[in-house]
Amino acid sequence: MSKRANLYRFTWVNKWFMVKFAILAVMWYGAYLCFDVVKEIKPLKTFIPHEILGVEADATVAQVKKAYRQLSREKHPDKNPDNPEAVNEFITITKAYTIMTDEKARENFLKYGNPDGKGTMAVGIALPNFLQKKEYQIQVLVAFFIIIIIIIPGYFYNKIMSNEKDVGGVDIDNRKIFTELIPENMLGKQIPGILAHSFEFS
Fold first, then answer.
1. How far, rounded to the nearest angstrom, does the alpha carbon of residue 193 sit from its chain's CA centroid?
2. How far apart are the C-alpha atoms of 79 and 73, rounded to whole Å?
3. What is the residue extent of each domain of the chain?
4. Which parts of the chain register pLDDT below 50?
5. Residue 126's pLDDT is what?
6. Which among 9, 29, 45, 62 is most buried, taking Cβ atoms within 10 Å?
């Protein structure tokens, strides 16, 4: 096989390798962009009555009323005309006060997260309970990152690379070269010379 043919084959394989590398780089960049967007997402604002009023979950009605009076004076829309959110904040405080001073609503909220009691529809995720706990969030995210960003792309990349190997792990291009060079009655001393024609050496 001529040097020109070997050079052409070497150049073509290099180009194919660069294409695969570029695809992998684009995938990594896409994953980075997703991570960058996700980390900027602010958590949803949850409605927790006792936290809104600044009291403990087991606070007495008197403590709740005292906290409500103080907050309602501070957050009343008439005292905050420049704050466009003043009305919504005052409504939220009043709603929290109503729940915390109604024994049944308070019990339902603490038990079910809803002042009206248990809902008719329960939504859940088919994951073990420990994966949904706050103290394991970092470990779950790290495991997700490793699996999605490293293991899965690595698996497919390995599959792509293995497809270029023939039986016995011999490169397909080398197989073509060796088929032309290896005679039926090959001597052992010819092996180094034949190997020297392999794609890697050329």
1. 52
2. 8
3. 49-123
4. 1-5, 7-8
5. 62
6. 9
Q: What percent of the chain has pLDDT over 90?
A: 0
Identify the CATH number of the domain defined by range 49-123.
1.10.287.110
Can you give 55-79 as a three-state secondary structure string? CCCCCCHHHHHHHHHHHHHHHCHHH
Q: Give start and end residues of each alpha helix (H) in 76-151.
A: 86-101, 103-112, 137-145
Task: State the DSSP H helix or E strand holding residue 37, giving kind and residue range, or none if neither.
Answer: helix 3-39
Give the closest residue to 97 by CA, choosing from 48, 66, 64.
Answer: 64
Query: Which residue do the tokens 């020109």 mark?
Result: 4
Residue 200, CA distances (Å) to 27, 30, 167, 170 in order: 29, 33, 18, 11
- Per-residue model confidence as pLDDT tens digits over 47-73: 788 888 888 888 888 998 999 888 888
Describe the chain by its helix, strand, coil percentages, rounded to 5: 70, 0, 30
